[in-house]
Structures are given as C-alpha cells and as structure tokens.
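Re: export button greyed out
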Amino acid sequence: MNGTENTKDTTLTMTGAEIVVRALQDQGVETLFGYPGGAVLPIYDALFSTPELRHILVRHEQGAGHAAEGYARSTGKPGVCLVTSGPGATNMVTPIADAMMDSIPMVVITGQVPSHLIGTDAFQECDTVGITRCCAKHNYLVRDVNDLARVMHEAFLIATTGRPGPVVIDIPKDIQFAKGTYKGPAGTHHKTYHPASDPDPMAIEAALDLMRTARRPIFYTGGGIVNSGPEASIALRELVAETGFPITSTLMGLGSYPASGKNWLGMVGMHGAYEANHAMHDCDVMICLGARFDDRVTGRLDAFSPHSKKIHVDIDPSSINKTVRVDIPVIADAGKAIKALLSGWRTQQHRRSELNDWWSQINGWRERKGFSYEHLKDQIKPQYAIERLYELTKSRNTYITTEVGQHQMWAAQHYHFEEPNRWMTSGGLGTMGYGLPAALGVQAAHPDALVIDIAGEASIQMCMQEMSTAIQHRLPIKIFILNNEWMGMVRQWQQLLHGERYSHSYSDSLPDFVALAKAYGGHGIQCRNPGDLDDAIQEMIDYDGPVLFDCLVTKDENCFPMIPSGAAHNDMILGEITGQEIGEAGKVLV
Amino acid sequence: MTADQDKRAPQSAYFIDNDEPDQIVRRTLAAIVDNEPGVLARVVGLFSARGYNIESLTVAEVDRKAHQSRITIVTSGTVDIIAQIKAQLERLVPVARVVDITTAPAGLERELALIKVKAETGSDERVEAMRLSDIFRARVLDVTLESFIFEITGGSSKIDQFIELMEPLGLVQVSRTGVLSIQRGLPD
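Workaround output, generated via the alternate export path:
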C-alpha cells in the first residue's frame, strides 16, 4: 500500500494491467485468488512487481471463485479472483452463480482476447460477458483503457452495496498493455445504480404495530443479517431479548443469533428444526429479516404459514412478494431496519407475558426432539461425528465450511454457531465442491483460526485438487469427510421417491483418503470406531498443516427431520421413510 | 404514482387491492436505461430467464448527451408478476427507472405500422381499402397498379382493427414498430 494513499485522488498514466493492480490496492484488497493464462499475462506481470498483494494460486479456476467466496463470507470484504479468458472464465461461472444466489460480494477479473480478435472465435475466446450476464450482479467488457479505473472502482461499489453479488470485469489483452489514465476510488458513483438502504419510518411503524399485538410472533432471519455486518447481529440479539420473541434462521443466516440463546428455535426449512417449522406454520406475525422465502424454507407455498401477517425486511425490492405475499414490506438493509425496530420497540411498553401460551406451545414441539438419533456403539453415526467435532472445537476460533448434501444438513443441525461469518456454505446454488476452496479463502483471511470443511466423500472429490493449493500456501485447513460411500442426499431421495432404485449414487472406487492426503503432502486420518473418534479429531486439530480426515460413518443414515417436497411445515417427517411421503405433485419438485 | 408502485410502497401495505390475483393483465412498461453495450440483452435475458412474456419491445437512444435509451415493453401477466417484472428490471444496474405506462395517469402509447394490401386497379377492394384508410387516417406510402402500402399510427388496438379490416380486402404483409410510450405534461 506504499504511497497509494496520496495518489487516490490524483490522475496518473500507467498501463491497463497496472491500473488493475493499483485499483485493487486502492480498494484495500490484500489477497486475491487466481490462475494465470495467456489473456491475463500482463496483469500477472504487474502482480510480479507487487509482492504486497498476496496472490493465492489455485489448481482450477472454480477453486479461485469459491475461495474468494469463503474469504468474503468470513470477512465481510469482497472476494477477488483473477482468471484468464475462455476456459478460465467458463470455469468461473459456477462460483459466480453461487455468489449471486447467496449474495456474496465478489469481483472477478477475466482476461479476454485482444479487442481486434473479439468475435473471431480466437484461441481461448468466449463471450464472457454474454455467459455471465445472467448469473452475475453486473458485468463489464472494457473497451477503452481510460474506462478501466472507473470500471474497477464501480465494480467494487456494485459488488459490496445494496444486495451484494458478483461483478465480472472482462479485460481484453490489448487494453491491459495500453497506457491510460488512472484515477483513485474517491468519489466513485454510478449513474443509474443507487440502492436504498434506509428503512421507511412509516413501514417500521406499521411493522411495530403488528409486532406489539402479536400473540404468536416469530423472527425468521437470513443471510441478509450476516451481509449487513456484525452490528446487525448485535442489534438482532438485543431486539430478540427485548421482545422475547422466538427466532429461527435460514441456512445462510446461522450464527447471527447464537445457537445457545434461549429464544433460538434452530434452523428453519426442509431439514430444519421441528419446533422452528411448526412455529413458522402456526405463528400470527412473521418478521422476516434479510431472508427471501426460498423454496427450501417455505415448503408447499399454499400451506406456508397460513394464518400469519408477514413483515418482510429485504434490501432487494424484487424479493418482496416474489413467492410469498407479505403485508408489510420494508425495503432496507437488515441491520438498519433491526436498529429502527429496536428503537421503536423501546419507546413503547411491551407485553411479554402474553407470549406465555406461545412459548409453551413451542416447548411442546421442542420436546419432540426432532434432531435426536439412535447412538451406536460400534459404528459412527454422522450426527455423532458432527456433535463430537462441535464439542472439541467450540471453544476455539473455529470457522466451518461445507460441501453440499447430507453432511451439510447434519453440520447445520448439529454444529452450533454463536457468531456470524463463522459458517460458509453454498445455500442457493447448492454447489458440491464449494467447501474445500471456500475453506482456503477463510484460512487465507484468518491464518490463526481453525478452519474445517465438513465434507462428504462424493462432494470432496469435486474440488479435491485444491488440497495442493493448501499445501503450497501453508493453509492448514482440516477436511472432515463424513464417508458413507453414497451421495447421501441423492440416495435418500431415491429411497423416498424412486422405490429404492439407487441409480448411480454409490461412491464406487473411492480413493484411499489417507494415502491421498499423503500424496498431496498433507496428513491423513481414518476413523471408524466411535471410541476412537475424539482422539482422532484431536489429532486433526493438533496437526500443523492440512488434514484429510476420513470419518467412516453408517452408510444408510437419512437426514431427518424432513419436510418432503410438496408438503407443508407441519407435515414434517421425523423418523423412518415409508415411501408414501411425497404426493404426485411433490414428485416433480426438486 | 402508479398502482404497482403504490402496492409496493410501505405506507399502503395494509391496503393491498388485488381482488383478482389470477387475472392476466397487459401492461406497457417503459425502462429508461443507460445506453451501454449489452443493456438490451440484459433486459431481454431477464424476460427469458424468468419466463416473462414480451408482446412487443422497442428500443432507441432518446438522449444522446445523457446516453440514455428508452425501452418500451408490452408484457402480460398477473398483477403480482407485473410488479415482479418491474422490480426485476429496476434491479438491473444500468436501469435508471421503470414506469408503468398503462396505469400511469399521463401515459401515452403509440405504434406505427406499414401495411401492404393487394388491390387491383378498378376493383371494389381498391376503392374500399382507400376509403377505410381515409377513415383511419392512414397515409399511402406507396402505390402500384396492384397494391398499396399504408402507413398508420395509433394505439395498438386501432392498428389491429385496421389490419382486420384489410384482411378480406387483400392483406399481404404487415410490419409494426411495437409500442412507443411517453408521458403527458412535464415531469415534476
């Protein structure tokens, strides 16, 4: 960052590649994730002489994208990636779509073939802006080097404000070589992009009116609170304490309210807590804060919380009434809205005693113990593995990432989060292969933390190559594989929906994960007995370097409780599958 | 303020007037956009990606200095879907604003069509086509011994009606601009 402070407002002449690097520095970027190639070589050349900008070389561009997502999700800062044209850009599409779905701020710089070759099917050419238009928040093809500095700064503005998301900047190679004017980020604004973030006081007043008269209220919170920043979580905790309302969260919002908090009902949704889903169904006032009524949360729409008035706080106006009709829309940043609700609530007397009936109803659901499972002496239950992992790591500075599938849901159910930004998972897109590279990004941002990717044996193989990145950059991530030799969630759905015809869901020809860890230069541990599990987990924690932990768990465990497709929240199944859970209409749903 | 804006504005949330939520309505939306490369693709891509309907779409730069284009889209859907289309359009970074012309009190819509009709000299059809074009204030752009080309402007329904009348007389070809929109009076 040497001397950049005084150049922020002055104009300088430099090459396009230098403009990119200088803009990254002026935006406060410390780490970026990438992979070089022909069309980004000038930028890599500029990085060569900028050692203070840390570049983490991945093994596949998808890894760079998810690493940037993990970095962003765990720090609140935008993640940055740098990849080449053609395959570099197309390999980046999955993380871009993933970041879009989960509202993760990310800036992706892609090289492009020289301007005069665009449209000629040149070597490693693809229409990057065309491909990413529908899965990025915004994208640019830079046609003039003198636009580059503005575009770079605008990209950071767009990625990090409003509803955050990925922004792609496609830079032809000749633009990277060309000399142009650099201008610092001061005064960056966009002609047409001005997201609102302050709540309308009248909407807050209307929301408070509903909250004050509620007899069966519930807070339904989501990733918007995490995105809003740590202050939003603090305000949320105060609001919950003052109102005495029960609170649930989506997968993306876990940690905003502590799992140890007394008003916590657990996660909502398809594999959420029995009490959370029943409370959502039976509530009379639902206060949705930074969540978007995703289909994994609502279940059957026409039976979703049928008797409630709904307040919806969302920074994105298009989320309002998209799938669920709400009564009080509040278009605002979740943190600002929570603070406004809190100060409004404090000015009025509230009547907590009237919630007693509601809480005793909730306690009745709690007694069903929806997450309970049968312990086995001679085999490790996946839930037990997560429970032990939680117990042995909860007092540490721990960050958890996951892949996608049963292990992800068990992690969400049995690992308990006390703080936001500690839980990195692919919620909207459901990207297998997310967890390992995301863990790298988290570890790069938090070098002294314990970063664990809770994985499945199938998911982990999708970005397994990034183990090599972990070794090279001394990122001591721990990969905790719940190995049941099945694509467990696929198998569960086949059991539920397709007459136990397990079509291509068996994880055949698995690698020897211990040997694989060794081959990469990491440490491998295998554990199959419940009695050995604690020691093995401790060994993983204590090892100074990347670890692949192959935890052999029961093979046919299903993830419960579950709201079957096409069913309502109060139709949760707790125990075993009979094959009759899903009706004809539900079968076509995902 | 339009009905759609009204419905999404927080202060009126208690009074959602949506008596017939399943009824399909046709709406003309005007999006004022920054005229940057690809902006039309963003708008069109949004409609196809989310399964919205486009009945007509016109686009042209309308303010060269400000680099602004006006995209007028005729679409149809339930009231909820129209509100969603508007919100999704406004979410696009280069979109400055979206106006619902159909429900705006000052909305004005016009379309231009070129209509070719076969009409042999001396035939009754030729006389009738000429007579009708007069009634509709269509202009004759081109005339041959066998045909006319009429130019007609007006609301879409007027043009539909004219085309319908030309059909039995010898309609050959139609070319339409799609709907253009503007608002009466001066902006506040």
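Residues 350 and 513 of chain A are 57 Å apart (CA to CA). The button fix ships in the next patch.
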